[in-house]
């Protein structure tokens, strides 16, 4: 193939690489760049196109030009399952214990003439070809031995000129060599004889493909060396380009971590670069192969190969998230993980499964990739044509190489996958570049009119701020007015309920802990002294109305008035009767309304002379502490009021009364549920309610203190518990000590 010179193509190269052509007109720039890379990698050498027939390449009547190279392809003699020494070949030829096969090709594509079945991939064989040289061949002749991918020996005119690895059919003893060689032949070997008798012995005990897979070449040492150096130079340029692209996209990801596509694209090129580093023709490969553990190389190669497929799925998912399915990456990644586990097995074991694992992963990745791209094309997503072209190049070169391994060759190249990846990478770079370009264009559009928009926004913000300040002032005034009204309502509520310290007039040893949540309270206390048959009776009420704040406060006023009417005016002192009548009056008040307002309440009637205490409660209990033990007397399960009754008859809703004769040194406590429902921080830092159990323990512990100190103690414990938490509900707690 005639080489293109950079001198002639530089002007057009710069033209097709311009941003206008690549990103705004069409895809010719990227495609042209790909073919430029492909053509530039060709070496400026000519080939003598004479194919071996019946094991002989006859060039005796040819005139050889200095730069011409003899390609040793065609029909070679083939001796299966034996390593024949050159001196013994003629005897086997006479016995016709051989066959003619096409070289280069994998020997599992050859059929055994005895069984008409293909040979196994693993085994041993000997190849032979005779080359009748042109008369004017350069005396400084050399032979290029390609990578045979297993152990081998090469003889020229019965002299061993090259040995790689160990010839064996035992996989455990295998020492495969993946390294070609350029050897200058000694003139004396064929000075009198113008024929090269080339014998190649090959062993393949473990690899999934065996035989001579690339062409042997004979020609001027200078020409072959120059061709090798040029090929290696281009291979190193390609290698450097891959790692440069990978690092560049890793840096892009660092600055824009939300753009995951740059990370996955960088990983794709990195894995491809690793594959190229391990087994491609370049100086680094020769250095690595000579100086490092050879068993690591195939593992590094196939490990990178396996990771390519799930990374490709991640890359497509990052570009087309709506077209991707959640199961695609787990399946592809799982297969890659399983494949990676095989790499920890001995070389002769994992090499048996490599080809199957490669095929399975590739097929699944292709199906998933085509599904994503097909859906994106159907939905007319941007840049899908670029993606499809890249995948097409990748598939075609992959299919080509697959056919090559079974002996169907369309080109002289054994491996074209790097060109497929080259086209894929260039097109993907175009996709990412176009997306970045589109993002930059949007930024530029925003930047052009940014100052004007900022001024407009500033004026709007200033106007809004002025309105907000005006509204804030109005709201502040209204809030102040409402708050003042509520505070005044709190004073009215206090005057109606009476001063909590008034309880001390009835019981010297008593306290009332009263903490409204919202200035006015939905909890209320009520107490009164009644003379019955010349005996003093003290009626004490602790109530918790539905709601808190202003709605609750209205209920407290109603409850206070109704209690005054029932107890003070009608002289009804039995706690259960007070509750029953109170329930009826509240139900009557709200009859026909959809409200569920009511109250939980505890009432005691204490006769000082007889020390008899009667208690009844509507859900609220009484706590009685005697002789160092606390006892909870629960109220009835019915609340006062609460809307439409679920009972068919009023008499079904009854309140029980309990009677006690109090012993000396007894303490009584009545409370709403505000204290025990208050949120706070437990010792381990967890936010939780105080809870009823802890509340009972607190009352028992506090009862040991003088009654005059108990309120202050309870206030401190509540504050320490609450800390930064807001008050949950109104809190009411009444304590009475009876000597």
Characteristics of this structure?
alpha+beta; elongated; 7-stranded mixed sheet; 739 residues; Jelly Rolls; 18 helices; 4 domains; 25 strands; 6-stranded antiparallel sheet
Query: Count the strands?
Result: 25
Q: Main sheet? A: 7 strands, mixed
According to CATH, what is the topology of the largest domain? Phosphatase 2c, domain 1
| Count of structural domains | 4
Structural class, by secondary structure, is alpha+beta
Tell me the fraction of residues in β-strands, as a range: 15-25%
Rg from Cα: 49 Å
Distance between the termini: 119 Å
Helix content: 40-55%
Number of helices in the DSSP assignment: 18
For the record, what CATH class of the largest domain applies?
Alpha Beta
Rounded average pLDDT: 81
CATH superfamily of the largest domain: PPM-type phosphatase domain
CATH architecture of the largest domain: 4-Layer Sandwich
Q: Uncertain regions: pLDDT < 50 for 5+ in a row? A: 1-43
Q: What is the 3D form?
A: elongated
What do these coordinates show?
- With 739 residues, this protein is an alpha+beta fold.
- 46% of the residues lie in helices and 20% in strands.
- The relative contact order is 0.06.
- Helix 1 packs antiparallel against helix 3 (28-40) and helix 13 (450-497) runs parallel beside helix 15.
- It is elongated, with a radius of gyration of 49 Å.
- The termini are far apart.
- It has 18 helices and 25 strands.
Topology of helices and strands:
Layout: H1 6-16, H2 19-25, H3 28-40, E1 46-48, E2 56-58, E3 68-72, E4 74-80, H4 89-94, E5 99-103, E6 123-132, E7 141-145, E8 151-156, E9 159-164, E10 181-184, E11 195-204, E12 216-220, H5 221-255, H6 260-279, H7 283-291, H8 296-319, H9 328-342, H10 347-378, H11 384-405, H12 417-448, H13 450-497, H14 503-506, E13 510-515, E14 523-532, E15 535-545, H15 549-569, H16 575-589, E16 598-607, E17 612-618, E18 622-626, E19 629-633, E20 640-641, E21 658-661, E22 666-671, E23 679-681, E24 687-689, H17 692-702, H18 707-722, E25 731-738
Parallel strand pairs: 1-3, 2-6
Antiparallel strand pairs: 3-12, 4-5, 4-6, 6-11, 7-10, 7-12, 8-9, 8-11, 13-25, 14-15, 15-16, 16-17, 16-20, 17-21, 18-19, 18-22, 22-25, 23-24
């Amino acid at each position: 193939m005639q080489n293109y010179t950079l001198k002639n193509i530089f002007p057009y190269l710069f033209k097709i690489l311009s941003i206008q052509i690549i990103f705004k007109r069409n895809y010719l720039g990227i495609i042209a760049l790909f073919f430029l890379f492909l053509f530039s990698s060709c070496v400026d050498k000519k080939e003598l196109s004479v194919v071996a027939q019946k094991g002989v390449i006859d060039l005796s009547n040819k005139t050889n030009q200095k730069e011409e190279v003899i390609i040793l392809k065609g029909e070679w003699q083939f001796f299966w399952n034996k390593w024949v020494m050159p001196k013994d070949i003629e005897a086997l030829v006479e016995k016709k214990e051989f066959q003619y096969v096409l070289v280069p090709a994998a020997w599992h594509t050859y059929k055994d003439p005895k069984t008409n079945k293909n040979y196994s991939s693993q085994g041993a064989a000997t190849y032979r070809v005779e080359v009748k040289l042109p008369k004017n061949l350069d005396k400084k002749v050399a032979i290029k031995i390609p990578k045979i991918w297993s152990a081998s020996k090469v003889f020229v005119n019965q002299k061993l000129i090259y040995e790689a690895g160990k010839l064996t059919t035992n996989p455990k003893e295998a020492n495969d060599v993946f390294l070609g060689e350029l050897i200058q032949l000694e003139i004396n070997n064929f000075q009198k004889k113008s024929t090269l008798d080339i014998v190649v012995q090959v062993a393949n005990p473990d690899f999934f493909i065996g035989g001579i897979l690339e062409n042997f070449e004979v020609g001027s040492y200078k020409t072959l060396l120059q061709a090798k150096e040029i090929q290696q130079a281009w291979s190193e340029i390609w290698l450097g380009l891959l790692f440069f692209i990978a690092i560049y996209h890793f840096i892009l990801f660092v600055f824009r971590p939300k753009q995951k596509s740059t990370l996955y694209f960088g990983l794709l090129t990195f894995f491809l670069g690793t594959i190229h580093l391990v087994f491609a023709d370049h100086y680094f490969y020769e250095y690595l192969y000579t100086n490092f553990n050879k068993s690591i190389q195939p593992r590094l190669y196939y490990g990178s190969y396996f990771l390519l497929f799930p990374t490709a799925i991640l890359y497509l998912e990052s570009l087309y998230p709506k077209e991707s399915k959640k199961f695609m990456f787990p399946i592809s990644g799982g297969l890659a993980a399983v494949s990676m586990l095989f790499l920890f097995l001995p070389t002769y074991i994992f090499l048996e499964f490599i080809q199957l694992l490669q095929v399975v992963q590739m097929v699944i990745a292709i199906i998933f990739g085509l599904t994503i791209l097909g859906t994106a094309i159907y939905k007319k997503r941007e840049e899908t044509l670029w993606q499809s072209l890249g995948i097409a190049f990748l598939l075609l070169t992959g299919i080509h190489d697959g056919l090559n391994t079974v002996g169907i060759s369309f080109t002289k190249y054994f491996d074209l996958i790097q060109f497929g990846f080259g086209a894929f990478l260039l097109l993907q770079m175009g996709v990412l570049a176009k997306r970045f370009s589109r993002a930059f264009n949007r930024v530029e559009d925003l930047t052009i009119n940014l100052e004007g928009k900022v001024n407009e926004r500033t004026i709007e913000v200033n106007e809004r701020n002025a309105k907000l300040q005006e509204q804030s002032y109005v709201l502040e005034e209204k809030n102040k007015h409402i708050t003042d009204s509520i505070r005044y309502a709190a004073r009215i509520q206090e005057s109606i309920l009476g001063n909590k310290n008034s309880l001390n007039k009835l019981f010297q040893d008593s306290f009332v802990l009263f903490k409204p949540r919202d200035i006015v309270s939905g909890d209320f206390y009520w107490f009164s002294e009644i003379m019955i048959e010349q005996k003093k009776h003290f009626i004490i009420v602790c109530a918790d109305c539905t709601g808190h704040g202003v709605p609750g406060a209205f209920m407290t006023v109603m409850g206070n008035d109704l209690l005054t009417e029932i107890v003070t005016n009608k002289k009804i002192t039995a706690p259960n009767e007070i509750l029953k009548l109170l329930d009826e009056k509240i139900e009557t008040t709200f009859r026909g309304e959809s409200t569920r307002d009511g109250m939980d309440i505890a009432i005691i009637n204490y006769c000082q002379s007889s020390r008899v205490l009667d208690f009844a409660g509507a859900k609220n209990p009484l706590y009685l502490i005697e002789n160092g033990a606390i006892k909870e007397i629960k109220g009835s399960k019915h609340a006062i009021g609460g809307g439409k009754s679920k009972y068919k008859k009023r008499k079904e809703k009854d309140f029980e009364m309990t009677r006690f004769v109090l012993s000396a040194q007894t303490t009584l406590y009545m409370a709403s549920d505000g204290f025990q429902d208050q949120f706070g921080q437990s010792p381990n830092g967890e936010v939780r309610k105080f809870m009823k159990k802890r509340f009972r323990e607190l009352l028992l512990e506090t009862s040991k203190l003088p009654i005059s100190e108990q309120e202050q103690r309870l206030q401190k414990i509540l504050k320490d518990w609450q800390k930064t938490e807001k008050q949950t509900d109104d809190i009411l707690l009444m304590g009475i000590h009876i000597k």
